[in-house]
Design a protein that fits this description.
- By secondary structure, the protein is an alpha/beta fold.
- The chain has 3 helices and 6 strands, in the order βββαβαβαβ.
- It has a 6-stranded mixed beta sheet.
- Helix 2 links the parallel strand 4 and strand 5.
- It is globular.
- The N terminus is likely disordered.
Length: about 150
């Protein structure tokens, strides 16, 4: 196993109360950025109480993507196959990409949430949007062309 700095997956603590001043606040009702930013189109499959019976996932997995529907579907399935079940998978479609949204709609798992941004923000902007939407204290980033082993 490589050193932690060489791992392709980054796991970061997400302290909700220490957001940067420039980050738009999140509306707790719909979990989209507030009025001062462009809200993403939301294709959420979860219930109001969340996907974990206890109400809050332990880890939020953020996957930014654009124009690679088959690859992102594989990445999402690998994240959902984790032995840790108390996760949410947040896919940020970075701009208009109907085919990716259609492909992800075929995955029937309440832990999956898909958000389509109206305008392209780039990989960093898409990741930041995912972090803003994350409910867990821990956030893991997964690239759309990567996949995880089940016991990651």
């Amino acid at each position: 196993m490589g050193s932690p700095s060489k791992l392709s997956t980054r796991l970061a603590f997400n302290p909700k109360r220490r957001r940067p001043a420039e980050a738009p606040p999140i509306s707790p009702k719909d979990k989209t950025p507030a009025e001062n930013s462009v809200p993403p189109q939301h294709y959420e499959k979860t219930s109001e109480t969340g996907n974990d019976p206890r109400g809050k996932p332990e880890v939020s997995v953020v996957i930014p993507t654009l124009g690679r529907p088959e690859l992102v579907a594989r990445a999402v399935k690998s994240a959902l196959a984790q032995t840790l079940r108390a996760i949410e998978v947040i896919v940020i479609v970075d701009g208009p990409d109907e085919q990716t949204c259609v492909e992800l709609a075929l995955i029937d798992d309440p832990r999956l949430q898909v958000f389509a941004l109206e305008q392209q923000r780039g990989n960093a902007g898409a990741r930041n949007a995912g972090v803003q939407l994350a409910r867990a204290d821990w956030v893991a980033f997964l690239d759309d062309d990567d996949e995880w082993k089940a016991d990651k």
